[in-house]
């Protein structure tokens, strides 16, 4: 099948796990391919370069990485992605779009992991776009709306909503339940929702029980759960929604 005959948007969960490798899964890394744009990532956890290659996805094609929040399992893969671009002689620019503070935290991460790497001259630009919570803006011709959520991480944590390839993809990131998630999901083609635990209360995270309790408020056409702990995986037979796994592909 030629690319033009395929679905307008393809979402691949390269990483669907939590921070701790539960179930042998990779950390948060969701790849979105559309006809109109270079592929984008939603989050780039520390394991993401490996996750992309395991899924057969070319890291060098990624145009924008949208970062929900500045925890290592969501942005810690960026130094590796950037260095991979350097050593593969990438030339196309890479944009990192994340919460206020993303530029400084990315620089710190690069310097901590590969000293000197933050100032290395490369054949490609790394551009940082900081997303003001509560606004809609265009990043590399993709419209993104962000909401501040409830997940302390040293910078405002965000839920994100992308308009890409004629589809709307909503993403909770990590957060305790907040009423704004109804707006994040409203009418979206796909809601990617954290479901860290099944029903045990855990601060600053969503559970399957929260998604069930608020199901009527979440008006997306489809919901896929991700960021799964061992507890959640142990309850998979009782889950009432689609559940991602590494390599899971959705055409919203
Ligand atoms: Zn987090
Ligand atoms: Zn996380």
What does this structure look like?
The protein starts with 8 loop residues before the first strand and ends with a strand. The strands form two sheets. A seven-stranded mixed β-sheet has the order 6-5-4-3-2-1-14. Strands 7-8-9-10-11-12-13 form a seven-stranded mixed β-sheet. The longest helix has 12 residues, at 102-113. Strand 11 (190-194), helix 6 (208-213) and strand 12 form a beta-alpha-beta unit. It has a single domain, classed as Ribonuclease Z/Hydroxyacylglutathione hydrolase-like (Metallo-beta-lactamase, Chain A, 4-Layer Sandwich), CATH 3.60.15. It is α/β, with parallel strands linked by helices and 252 residues long. Helices cover 20% and strands 26% of the residues. The protein is globular, with a radius of gyration of 17 Å. It contains seven helices and 14 strands. Residues 69, 71, 74, 151, 153, 174 line the site of one zinc ion.
Q: How does the SSE layout of this entry go?
A:
Elements: E1 9-15, E2 29-34, E3 40-42, H1 48-54, E4 64-66, H2 72-75, H3 78-87, E5 94-98, H4 102-113, E6 126-130, E7 136-139, E8 142-148, E9 158-164, E10 167-171, H5 180-185, E11 190-194, H6 208-213, E12 223-226, H7 230-234, E13 242-243, E14 248-250
Parallel strand pairs: 3-4, 4-5, 5-6, 10-11, 11-12, 12-13
Antiparallel strand pairs: 1-2, 1-14, 2-3, 7-8, 8-9, 9-10
This protein binds zinc ion (2 copies).
Residues 69, 71, 74, 151, 153, 174 line the site of one zinc ion.
């Amino acid at each position: 099948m030629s690319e033009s005959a395929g679905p307008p948007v393809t979402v691949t969960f390269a990483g669907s796990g939590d921070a701790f490798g539960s179930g042998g899964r990779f950390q948060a890394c969701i790849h979105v391919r559309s006809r109109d744009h270079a592929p984008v990532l939603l989050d780039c956890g520390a394991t993401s370069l490996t996750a992309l290659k395991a899924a057969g996805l070319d890291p060098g094609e990624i145009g924008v990485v949208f970062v929900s929040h500045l925890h290592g399992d969501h942005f810690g893969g960026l130094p590796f992605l950037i260095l991979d671009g350097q050593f593969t002689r990438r030339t196309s620019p890479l944009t990192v779009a994340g919460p206020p503070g993303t530029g400084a935290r990315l620089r710190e991460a690069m310097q901590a992991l590969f000293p000197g790497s933050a100032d290395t001259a490369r054949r490609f630009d790394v551009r940082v776009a900081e997303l003001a919570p509560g606004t809609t803006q265009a990043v590399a011709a993709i419209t993104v709306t962000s909401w501040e959520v409830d997940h302390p991480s040293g910078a405002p944590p965000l839920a994100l909503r992308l308009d890409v390839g004629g589809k709307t993809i909503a993403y909770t990131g990590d957060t305790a339940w907040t009423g704004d998630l109804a707006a994040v999901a409203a009418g979206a083609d796909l809601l990617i929702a954290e479901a860290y635990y099944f029903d045990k209360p855990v601060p600053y995270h969503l559970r399957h029980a929260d998604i069930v309790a608020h199901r009527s408020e979440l008006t997306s056409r489809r919901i896929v759960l991700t960021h799964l702990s061992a507890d959640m995986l142990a309850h998979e037979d009782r889950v009432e929604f689609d559940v991602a796994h590494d390599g899971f592909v959705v055409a919203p």
